[in-house]
Design goal:
Blueprint: H1 2-10, H2 14-57, H3 64-76, H4 87-104, H5 108-137, H6 141-229, H7 244-303, H8 306-324, E1 330-332, H9 333-350, E2 355-360, E3 369-371, H10 375-385, E4 394-403, E5 406-413, H11 420-431, H12 441-454, E6 459-465, E7 469-477, H13 481-490
Parallel strand pairs: 2-4
Antiparallel strand pairs: 1-3, 4-5, 5-7, 6-7
Helix pairs in contact: 2-4, 2-6, 3-6, 4-5, 5-6, 6-7, 7-8, 7-9, 7-12, 8-9
Length: about 500
């Protein structure tokens, strides 16, 4: 029987196991709470009724006998008239209190005492009526005085004693009820402590059994996924119980099989895709520059300035000789600066009235590797979007420095600059890899080529002030061309 229940429990899904753990703890706790609440409610109701009865009884004047006897005497000696006397008011108050106590009576003893009090009040009413009748008849002073001494004073004494006895019994019952409530509270505390200890033991036991049955297969799946993440594709889960966890383990095994089949293919495709992206970006940059350079040569030929056409063609030849560079994607910093210098020489022929340039890069970074055609698109952007849009002579400065393990190159112009809104738009276009904007074409390509070769932490950043100019900063890892050749030879 126990083995069947154990097997049935093992085959439960996680949700049902959690529900069972909740029920084991909550059901006894809720039962205890219900018992405590009911007991406290009943005791409180009993106590409340007795308090109300005592409060009503306390409304009975402790000086009822003295007041009533005195008022009756004043009436007999004709010191007060019937209308002036407070006898009837005292009788009405006493009857009202007795009637209220009848509604709140809690025992037969209370009923007996209240019946006696009501009987005494009825007799007292009759005695008052006899006195009033004698007063109306006249000359019956002795008879009224006799009624007052032998009847009225005795009955008022009995009424006071009866109601005081009622109050005494009520106070005694309140005390007994309080003691009973205290006893019940103490028993509830003892039972609560006992049940709490039992629940604590049960909770500890189930907190070990139930979570273990839930977490053991999950831990096994976790360990298998860690092994798979580390590259071990030979591991498998071996879960035979647990509903959905068992199904999850089987699905994981099938997924590992498929991952093992696809891993090599995906890796190869990623290498091919990355290489294709680099080639595509390079192909996009070269024609972009060529279009603009040929426009300049055509313009010079049309003006008949053959000498400068020859000079520009020579510079263009030098430019493309550096660009091709035996098909290498990375060149030295010195070669890249020679390349951009050729570009600036070509452009200065056309824009000699508005363009001047400076190149100030320290010798220590001349041997550093840089992706081919990185600086030229930035210089071109500075010329066409900065210098040309301002009046007067423009300046493009190219500076560089080494910063620990990195190299920083700055392409600075004193052109028109950008408004804060335009600067944010350009930064967003580059950061979100959106080359669709025509004027972001060169910036995007340069930034993307650096990121693909060096990593996401490298690339270009822009700072600009409208009316003052723009600075484009290139961040590259400091890697000498000699070290790169040695690494290739080692491979």
């Amino acid at each position: 029987m126990i083995s069947k229940m154990r097997k049935l429990y093992r085959d439960l899904d996680i949700a049902n196991k959690i529900r069972i753990s909740y029920l084991v703890v909550l059901v006894p706790m809720m039962a205890l709470v219900v018992v405590c609440v009911v007991n406290l409610y009943l005791g409180n109701q009993r106590y409340k009724e007795m308090i109300e009865s005592a409060v009503v009884a306390s409304g009975f004047s402790l000086n009822f006998k003295e007041d009533f006897d005195y008022e009756t005497y004043l009436l007999i000696v004709e010191n007060k008239t019937i209308e002036q006397s407070g006898i009837h008011e005292l009788l009405d108050d006493a009857n009202g209190i007795v009637d209220d106590l009848f509604e709140l009576k809690n025992s037969d003893e209370d009923a007996r005492l209240l019946e006696s009090a009501r009987h005494y009040l009825d007799n007292l009413q009759k005695y008052v009526e006899r006195i009033e009748l004698n007063l109306a008849t006249g000359n019956r002073y002795d008879e009224n005085l006799l009624i007052w001494e032998n009847d009225v004073q005795i009955v008022t004494s009995l009424i006071s004693e009866t109601l005081n006895e009622y109050i005494f019994y009520e106070i005694r019952d309140i005390q007994e009820t309080r003691e009973q409530v205290e006893y019940n509270s103490l028993m509830i505390i003892r039972i609560t402590v006992l049940v709490a200890v039992i629940l604590l033991v049960v909770t500890i036991v189930f907190s070990i059994i139930i979570p273990r049955s839930i977490t053991r297969p999950i831990y096994e799946i976790r360990d298998v996924t860690r092994e798979v993440a580390a590259g071990n594709m030979s591991v498998r889960t071996h879960i035979i119980y647990g509903g959905e966890v068992k199904a999850l383990g089987e699905s994981l095994n099938r997924m590992i099989d498929k991952i093992g089949d696809l891993l090599d293919t995906v890796t190869l495709e990623q290498v091919r895709l990355r290489h294709a992206e680099l080639e595509l970006l390079q192909a996009q940059i070269n024609p972009h520059f060529l279009y603009n350079t040929l426009d300049t040569i055509v313009w010079l030929a049309e003006t008949g300035d053959q000498e400068r056409v020859v000079s520009m063609v020579g510079s263009l030849s030098k430019f493309f000789r550096t660009s091709l560079n035996q098909g290498r994607d990375n060149v030295s910093m010195g070669e890249e600066l020679q390349h951009v210098g050729s570009y600036l020489e070509i452009q200065q022929v056309r824009y000699q009235d508005i363009l001047s340039y400076e190149i100030d890069v320290p010798e220590e970074i001349m041997g550093c590797l840089i992706p081919k055609i990185t600086i030229q698109p930035l210089v071109e952007n500075a010329l066409y979007h900065g210098i040309k849009n301002r009046r007067g002579k423009g300046l493009i400065r190219i500076t560089g420095r080494r910063n620990a393990d990195n190299v920083e190159l700055m392409v600075e112009d004193n052109g028109i600059g950008m408004t804060p809104e335009r600067l944010n738009a350009v930064r967003e276009g580059i950061a979100h890899q959106d080359p669709d904007g025509g004027d972001l074409y060169g910036l995007y390509n340069v930034n993307e080529r650096i990121r693909l070769r060096a990593g996401d932490e490298y690339g270009i950043t822009l700072d600009s002030t409208y009316g003052q100019g723009t600075v484009v900063t290139i961040l590259l890892p400091f890697k000498l061309i000699v070290d790169a050749v040695d690494a290739v030879d080692a491979e």
